[in-house]
Write a structure and sequence with these properties.
It is built from twelve helices and 14 strands. The protein is α/β, with parallel strands linked by helices.
Length: 375
């Protein structure tokens, strides 16, 4: 039986994406490979926006590498950054700023409640902000943040707008220019359904060109020097992840074959809806309200007497991988996260729910019949 990853990513990929990597050795500076990088850049840019105002900078590493590249490259010397922190990944943006000696303002926000846009508006009003950064889909909880509203505020105050869309790009339809996004951070291994190793930043060309005047804070993660290398030579400054790039090229073709981002979002939404209904029927207490979720991940509160390590092992024995949550509620409840992205379909959701039911019975966990957020 196929092993299933119900995680925030890396996600299940198709056999054909895996097979794309089983090729003879690839030269990173070979003309054929440079053509593949050019095509991948072009496709990612087209997915992000069709205005012609954007370009894509390919990097190598984890998604966090692209977060660090964006923050360390974009904030001007002496500039102040406003970071929206309502989860672990917003917090990571703030930690990156601190690491590079960038002054950052992060108004206190609850992690399990919808983002109050007024708090961000007030912070913009009372500070001279050069750059505003936030996460679109906060995978700590599954929260979808109001990027369009925050983008309009950034535009109003003249702040450069960075959006971490690592866990939403390719899975939720949106257009960068509609939301005033200057820099979008993405990665190959979430909703694009490639494998880890190819993070990237989609940037508005005019704001990207401004970075030529800034002293680099990093060597290998400087967006401008990598952009210039890709533009001028067709090559990455440093060795790219060749086989992950091949997998991404195949994954992008499969996204097209599925019908594009809107069709993929519809599949993810069907997965999410079926899982939410099944967990609710079991009596699992879900963290967020239905209307606040991004349809990509569900966070559940662990029931009383729950042994996560035992649950994990029992699920793994059934070929299913799940993760514990990053959030502990104010009342001390630990959480679990169930991702519904990747090469997952409704029969996989049914298999997950059947396994959860079996394991809870084996563990003698008594579930309430209804949950607070499902009434």
């Amino acid at each position: 039986m196929r092993p299933l990853l119900f995680t925030p990513g890396p996600a299940n990929v198709t056999d054909t994406v895996k097979q794309a990597m089983t090729v003879p050795d690839v030269g990173s500076r070979d003309n054929d490979f440079m053509e593949i990088m050019r095509a991948v850049r072009e496709k990612l840019t087209a997915l992000a926006d069709d205005s012609g105002d954007y370009t894509t900078v390919l990097l190598s590493g984890s998604g966090t590498s692209a977060m660090e590249a964006a923050v360390s490259s974009v904030v001007p010397p002496g500039g102040k950054m406003l970071v929206v922190v309502n989860g672990a990944y917003g917090q990571r943006l703030a930690e990156i700023a601190a690491t590079h000696g960038i002054e950052a303002v992060a108004p206190p926000l609850p992690w399990d409640q919808p983002l109050d846009v007024r708090v961000i508006a007030e912070a913009l009003q009372s500070n001279q902000i050069a750059c505003l950064a936030m996460t679109h889909h906060e995978t700590t909880t599954g929260m979808r943040n109001p990027v369009a509203e925050i983008g309009a505020l950034a535009k109003q105050h003249g702040a450069i707008f960075i959006v971490d869309a690592i866990s939403s790009f390719g899975g939720i339809p949106f257009r960068l220019s509609d939301w005033y996004i200057d820099y979008l951070i993405g990665s190959s291994n979430k909703c694009l359904q490639g494998v880890p190793g190819v993070p990237f930043v989609v940037a508005r060309r005019d704001v990207l060109e401004r970075l030529s005047a800034y002293e680099p804070r990093t060597l290998s993660l400087n967006l401008y020097t990598q952009y210039r290398s890709l533009e001028d030579t067709g090559q990455s400054l440093f060795t790219p992840n060749t086989h992950a790039m091949l997998a991404l090229q195949q994954a992008l073709q499969e996204l097209d074959d599925e019908g594009g981002v809107a069709a993929r979002y519809a599949r993810y939404t069907a997965n999410w809806r079926a899982l939410r209904a099944g967990l609710t029927e079991l009596g699992v207490d879900l963290l967020l309200r239905e209307e606040d979720e991004a349809h990509l991940l569900i966070t559940a509160k662990q029931p009383a007497g729950f042994d996560y390590e035992k649950f994990y092992a029992q699920m793994k024995a059934r070929g299913i991988t799940i993760y514990s949550g990053k959030l502990v509620t104010l009342s001390g409840e630990a959480t679990l996260r169930f991702g519904v992205i990747g090469d997952l379909h409704l029969p996989d959701i049914k298999r997950l729910l059947a396994a959860i039911t079996e394991v809870l019975v084996e563990m003698k966990i008594e579930m309430p019949r209804t949950s607070h957020h499902s009434r």
